[in-house]
Amino acid sequence: MVQQISKHEVLLVVYFIIVVVVLVFLFILFFYTFQRRKNKLLIEKVVAQKEYESALVQVENEIQEATLKNVGMELHDNVGQLLSVAKMQLRSGLMLLPEDKKETFTEALETVDLSLIEVRQLSKTVNGEVLANMDLQDAIQVEIDRINRFSHTNSTLTVSGDPIFVGEREKIIIFRIVQECCSNVIKHADAEHLVIDISYKEEHLHIFIKDDGIGYNTQNNKLGSGLINMQRRAEMIHAQLVAHSKQGHGTEITLTYQPPLHETAQSSHR
Question: Where are the domains of the chain?
Fold first, then answer.
């Protein structure tokens, strides 16, 4: 009788253990499924947020390029035309003046002539359609020449390697990054020298920008709007942008861009 009760108790214990194990398994399965679903939703949310931010940056860039295009056309067609007319009028007036009165008007004519050159060059660098028809290094050289004309910073450009194919959209964005960097140097760095080095490798483009200005503290997490704009533009074309700076020792900006495989293939057939 005692032996039969023991067997019965053993069976109850076994059944109880099985039930507990099944319940624990179901709980773990439920928790795993719930956690996996939660993680999936979080990932989808992060991806959606990044896609939204990317789309927002893209729209902002398109609006900015459209605005700059209109500004460039206005500079070239209207302001440039007015300066050309003023130049012709001054030149005609000089012919009617006696020699002792010509000096002031000659200086005014030279000022108008320089202003006309500046407007024409500026209209190139703000109009994306004009930039799209230029080689990247040529567009950057135009910007360098413009900086050397109106600022105390001595800027130089060096180019090495065989140029690789860069799409029109990517070319404009890369130029805007360089342009933003140059603008930051002129406005804030108080630099005497600015060096831009473009290096074409077999499958990627490497741009190194260095100035000898006042620099900034990299430990400060509050980035300037200029650097933020450059980073956002770099992300649009999946380029890598790295900034190094130290107070009193200038700033270095490195931009690395690798064209997609289909663009690389397109370049090889050209």
Answer: 135-270
